[in-house]
């Protein structure tokens, strides 16, 4: 229940005016409903339709007198017109209120989702890295949608509570003693059934967690579907899926059982209690029979309200955990927002270079070991630099630090003698990045190029393609730039894919081009294409190449060798190769084998 209050608060602050109007309408509707119900019997008896009624006392007399006050004779037409009038007004208000409800739900859900999406978009890489894609997707597209239901549930709950209060008050005016009895009975049941509320809360969390697992199971299965088929492990996958789904079913059914049981016990309890009250009333209060009918009406109206309040609370318990996880994710992301002003899109033209000064870094998940340890180097503007080292040496971490995706734990990174983090937005605008597992949209080559540079002209695109040694093969394609590349670029060969990604990076006219093992998964032929492309770029911009195969970096102006997060050597290819004892030559030799 602890999330109910924050949720209500957010909802209220978001929709203030409509929220109040909504509540007011509910109050009015509750009043109309209560009055119309209370009025039916007396109205009918006043009109003489239920002849056994005593017209001279109680509510009936009061209604009779009110009508007479306006000079109206209470007969069937008057009763029917009153009834119709009340019903029309009620239906119209109900329609109006239902509409406001939908608006609040939809706009609130949109607001929460966009806010979370934004928080995620601007969060630091380190935080995002710690989340799985399926976890975030699930929260954004499934759980927050579920909150629409919670909003409706909450509004209904408030409405029901208010209407109940109004009805109780009205009933109290009619017959305080009997209403008191009905309330005591309702209260006992309410408290008695509270244990179910706790259980429904537990189920709600379980359902949420299983749903999330189910989602990631499907996502992972689809991501690895080629391997799954190649290994022939479809059956274990199917079984695992079935297992999770069975678990989910169990929990959903259990939570429904609770709700249904609550409803049943209420109905039974209501009937039992009503009988007792009626018997007691006859004996003790000696009321007239008309009040019996009224009390029967009151109970028949109030008891379902008690039970729907309880089911409402249980329903909220099922849905609010979604709000909690979304809130939690948002909180984490907001705590680690990057400062990226959208109006500061100017690029940095690198003049002197980028300097790493005693830079150390450790991942939050591995705090006791430095992934980067007191590293110093200068990437001079306009030069081509290479990072080499065995896998796990820290090259990609250095690249992420260079992009500003990660922040040094110690030391500083200076771009033209200014702190990188102080100019994060312009710096990112100046970077072209080609990772090993590059990303392409399932769209045309044109769309993929424009994705990173929406303002590029046709000419710019061809120029970038040409620089990336991709012009020829794109021109050969029947659809040219309009060729659809497929999901993550599956319709292109690995080499073609990387050259499109390189073209995309170059289209941004970056000051710094970073290739993190961009050619590692390519064959010699394709690697040579990209290598030639990069050779053609030499001197035009600052280049950082992380390479596996040392043949690709022969022409680099400066080679940095890393080992266990430390820079161990630095120099040109010739210089490092001359020293037969250098780490670099041993790396080179191990590659030749
Ligand atoms: N997300 C991460 N969380 C924790 N440790 C990481 C993470 N990414 C990399 N590391 C560790 O940091 C070190 C350097 O990794 P990385 O920079 O990827 O090396 P390289 O690119 O040279 O192969 C490795 O020991 C690796 O295990
Ligand atoms: Mg790497």
Task: Please give a handful of descriptors for the protein shown.
593 residues, elongated, ABC transporter transmembrane region fold, 4-stranded antiparallel beta sheet, binds magnesium ion, alpha/beta, 6-stranded mixed beta sheet, binds adenosine-5'-diphosphate, 10% strand, Rossmann fold
Explain what you see.
With 593 residues, the chain is of the alpha/beta class. Among the domains are: 4-335, ABC transporter type 1, transmembrane domain (ABC transporter transmembrane region fold, Up-down Bundle); 440-509, P-loop containing nucleotide triphosphate hydrolases (Rossmann fold, 3-Layer(aba) Sandwich). Helix content is 65%, strand content 10%. The strands form two sheets. It has a six-stranded mixed sheet with strand order 6-7-8-3-9-10, sandwiched between helices. A four-stranded antiparallel sheet has the order 2-1-4-5, covered by helices on one side. Helix 5 packs antiparallel against helix 6 (176-192) and helix 7 runs antiparallel to helix 9 (234-285). The protein is elongated and about 115 Å long. The protein starts with a helix and ends with a helix. The mean pLDDT is 84. Magnesium ion (MG) binds at residues 395-396, 517.
């Amino acid at each position: 229940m602890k999330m109910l209050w924050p949720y209500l608060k957010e909802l209220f602050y978001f929709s203030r005016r409509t929220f109040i109007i909504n509540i007011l309408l509910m109050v009015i509707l509750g009043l109309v409903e209560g009055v119309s119900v209370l009025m039916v019997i007396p109205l009918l008896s006043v009109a003489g339709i239920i002849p056994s009624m005593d017209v001279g006392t109680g509510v009936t007399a009061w209604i009779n007198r009110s009508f007479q006050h306006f000079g109206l004779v209470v007969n069937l037409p008057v009763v029917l017109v009153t009834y119709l009038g009340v019903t029309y007004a009620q239906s119209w208000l109900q329609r109006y209120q239902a509409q406001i409800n939908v608006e609040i739900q939809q706009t609130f859900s949109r607001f929460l989702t966009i806010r979370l999406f934004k928080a995620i978009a601007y969060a630091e890489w380190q935080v995002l890295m710690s989340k799985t894609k399926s976890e975030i997707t699930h929260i954004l597209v499934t759980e927050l949608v579920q909150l629409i239901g919670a909003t409706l549930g909450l509004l209904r709950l408030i409405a029901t509570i208010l209407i109940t209060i109004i009805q109780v008050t009205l009933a109290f005016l009619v017959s305080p003693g009997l209403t008191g009895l009905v309330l005591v009975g309702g209260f006992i049941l309410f408290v008695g059934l509270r244990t179910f509320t706790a259980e429904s809360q537990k189920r709600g969390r379980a359902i949420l967690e299983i749903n999330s697992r189910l989602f990631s199971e499907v996502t992972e299965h689809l991501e690895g579907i080629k391997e799954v088929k190649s290994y022939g492990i479809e059956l274990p996958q199917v079984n695992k899926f079935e297992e999770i789904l069975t678990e989910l079913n169990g929990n959903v059914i259990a939570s429904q059982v609770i709700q249904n049981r609550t409803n049943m016990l209420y109905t039974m309890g209501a009937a039992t209690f009503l009988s007792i009250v009626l018997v007691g009333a006859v004996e003790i209060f000696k009321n007239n029979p008309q009040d019996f009918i009224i009390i029967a009406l009151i109970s028949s109206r109030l008891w379902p309200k008690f039970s729907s309040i309880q089911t409402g609370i249980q329903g909220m318990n099922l849905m609010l955990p979604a709000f909690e996880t979304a809130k939690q994710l948002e909180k984490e992301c907001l705590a680690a927002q990057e400062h990226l002003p959208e109006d500061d899109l100017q690029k940095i033209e690198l003049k002197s270079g980028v300097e790493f000064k005693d830079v150390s870094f450790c991942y939050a998940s591995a705090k006791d070991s430095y992934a980067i340890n007191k590293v110093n180097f200068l990437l001079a503007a306009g030069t081509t630099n290479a990072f080499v080292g065995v896998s796990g040496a820290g090259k990609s971490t250095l690249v992420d630090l260079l992009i500003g995706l990660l922040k040094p734990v110690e030391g500083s990174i200076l771009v033209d003698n200014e702190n990188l983090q102080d100019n994060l937005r312009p710096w990112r605008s100046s970077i072209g990045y080609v990772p090993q597992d590059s990303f392409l949209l399932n769209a045309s080559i044109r769309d993929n190029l424009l994705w990173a540079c929406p303002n590029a002209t046709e000419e710019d695109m061809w120029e970038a393609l040409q620089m990336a040694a991709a012009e020829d093969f794109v021109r050969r394609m029947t659809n040219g730039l309009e060729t659809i590349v497929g999901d993550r670029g599956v319709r292109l060969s690995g080499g073609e894919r990387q050259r499109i990604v390189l073209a995309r990076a170059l289209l941004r006219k970056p000051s710094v081009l970073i290739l993190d093992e961009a050619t590692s998964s390519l064959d010699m032929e394709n690697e040579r294409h990209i290598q030639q492309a990069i050779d053609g770029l030499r001197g035009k911009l600052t280049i950082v190449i992380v390479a596996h195969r040392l043949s690709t970096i022969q022409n680099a102006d400066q080679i940095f060798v890393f080992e266990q997060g430390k820079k161990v050597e630095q120099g040109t290819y010739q210089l490092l190769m001359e020293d037969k004892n250098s780490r670099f030559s041993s790396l080179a030799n191990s590659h030749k084998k």
